[in-house]
Specification:
heterodimer, A: 268 residues, Rossmann fold, B: 224 residues, alpha/beta, Transcription Regulator spoIIAA, six-stranded mixed beta sheet, 23% helix, MinD_FleN (chain A)
Chain lengths: 268, 224
């Protein structure tokens, strides 16, 4: 059976594409699938750092696409999670090092080796984006609740539709406290504008910062809300549509209700 | 043949033209052959009499004669017909101006205009859907968005000053009407239908409901 290729993109930089790719890759691998995460941010490699595999890179995606090595040689096995592999970007080339034809060939090879291939798309809509989406079957758009991120995500969604890919949406870095006070867009506003299928909501979480710095998968942390959210998203990506999407605001309400009932402001 | 008296088919009846006043007997002598020839047609027809000279008894006389002899339906004077013909003519003019005979150049679209996408219409543009921030809608005439307008809208390109931009949820980032540009802020922001128009070369925004732009027109008019 051929694997499926999912591109993770956003348009705007710094919204959490790389973190999401690493987390989803780990979560899908934990579900028992053979997963490759491919860093397409050629020249600005950092998925390897986020995954804590930076000192094991020998070959990279450019070598693989140009046929200078085999898939097995370029894919780096994760230290903790079985079935999870990283294909790192090249740090010395730039985005034009690969052509779309190279990518189509590469995607064909990867499909045969893995159940799921996650492509970490670079920011922007230039060659790097073209290369990332050319071979993809599905797309996940990561967006933060900011006006600028929403606009770029909107543009990306238009471009994905033009390539006959129906994208799914992750709203990342929600701060429930700010949403409740009206200082941040709610995920409903974002979904209203983008109007694509929502596949998960991820809260702002300090664990993400520590885990990306130390290179440990956040999904292994049972206390991390973001990590657990990514595990649910991974399950939904694999076709388990019955898992409900948790509204982070509901949690907040629950929390305040509990506090206020405890100190006697509210009767149970 | 002497053309002092003639009979002509007009509309749904016949018109009897009497060129010169003449005695009753002579008149009957002139008329009878005409009606004899079309006895079948004359039966049940409406006869309009267009007679010169002022003879108040002529019409009753002719009416008696024609109804008796030829069983015509009615005999009416020319004057009576005049207002009706005028009325008909007026309506004809209205018909020429009415929408039924006009074709309008309207581009009707549905869906969502996303950031970076652009819809351009030569004439009016109707969009059943939203315009997202960063999206652009451009029209030679009016722009009507049946949804949220959050992007840029250019109406009346390039010289049409009476163009309007209307949206059910009016929150544009930038508006052009004709040669004028405005970047807001627009409207009350309460998600109500509003529209923008030009008043003295300035773009203004008003509520669409309660004060519609064409509410004072006496009847529906074609929008060129």
């Amino acid at each position: 059976m051929e694997g499926k290729i999912i591109v993770i993109t956003s348009g705007k930089g710094g919204v959490g594409k790389t973190t999401a790719t690493a987390a989803l890759g780990a979560a899908i691998a934990l579900e028992g699938k053979r997963v490759a995460v491919v860093d397409m941010d050629i020249g600005l490699r950092n998925l390897d750092v986020v995954m804590g595999l930076e000192n094991r890179i020998v070959f990279n995606v450019v070598d693989l696409a140009k046929g200078r090595c085999k898939v097995r040689q370029a894919s780096i096995k994760d230290r903790r999670i079985e079935n999870l592999f990283l294909i790192p970007a090249s740090q010395s080339d730039n985005k034009t090092a690969l052509s779309t034809d190279d990518m189509v060939r590469l995607c064909k090879k990867l499909r045969q080796e893995f159940d799921v291939v996650l492509i970490d798309c670079p920011a922007g809509i230039e060659q790097g984006f073209e290369n990332s989406v050319i071979g993809a079957d599905e797309a996940v758009v990561v967006c933060t609740p900011e006006v600028s991120a929403v606009r770029d995500a909107d543009r990306i969604i238009g471009l994905l539709y033009a390539r006959s890919i129906t994208p799914k949406l992750i709203v990342n870095r929600i701060v429930p406290r700010l949403v409740a006070s009206g200082d941040m867009l709610s995920h409903k506003d974002v979904v209203d504008v983008l109007s694509i299928e929502l596949i998960g909501l991820v809260c702002m979480d300090d664990f993400v910062i520590t885990s990306t710095n130390t290179g440990t998968p956040i999904v292994l942390d049972r206390d991390s809300r973001a990590g657990q959210a990514f595990r649910r998203i991974a399950a939904r990506l694999l076709g388990n549509t019955e898992i409900p999407i948790v509204d982070p605001l509901e949690d907040l309400k629950g929390f305040w209700n509990r506090i206020s009932s405890k100190i006697g402001l509210r009767k149970t | 043949m002497d053309q002092t008296v003639s009979l002509k088919g007009v509309g749904d009846g016949l018109r009897l033209h009497i060129g010169v006043p003449m005695a009753r007997k002579e008149l009957l002598a002139e008329i009878s052959p005409l009606f004899d020839r079309i006895r079948q047609l004359a039966s049940g027809a409406r006869i309009t009499v267009d007679a010169s000279g002022e003879d108040p008894d002529l019409l009753p006389f002719l009416r008696d004669f024609l109804i008796r002899e030829y069983e015509v339906a009615e005999v009416i004077p020319m004057e009576a017909e005049q207002p009706r013909r005028q009325e008909v003519r007026k309506r004809q003019r209205d018909v020429d101006r009415s929408w039924e005979n006009r074709k309008s150049d309207v581009l009707m679209m549905c869906g969502r205009v996303r950031s970076g996408q652009k819809i351009q219409a030569k004439g009016h543009l109707v969009l059943m859907g939203d315009v997202n921030p960063g999206g652009e809608v451009i029209a030679g005439g009016d722009i009507i968005v049946l949804g949220s307008l959050c992007g840029m809208a250019m109406a009346g390109q390039t010289q049409k000053k009476d163009a309007i931009i209307m949206a059910l949820d009016f929150r544009p980032t930038l508006l052009h009407i004709g040669q004028q540009v405005s970047s807001g802020p627009f409207g009350a922001g309460n998600r109500s239908p509003e529209y923008a128009f030009l008043r003295e070369d300035r773009i203004e925004v008003a509520d669409y409901l309660g004060n519609p732009p064409f509410g004072r027109l006496p009847w529906p008019e074609f929008r060129p």
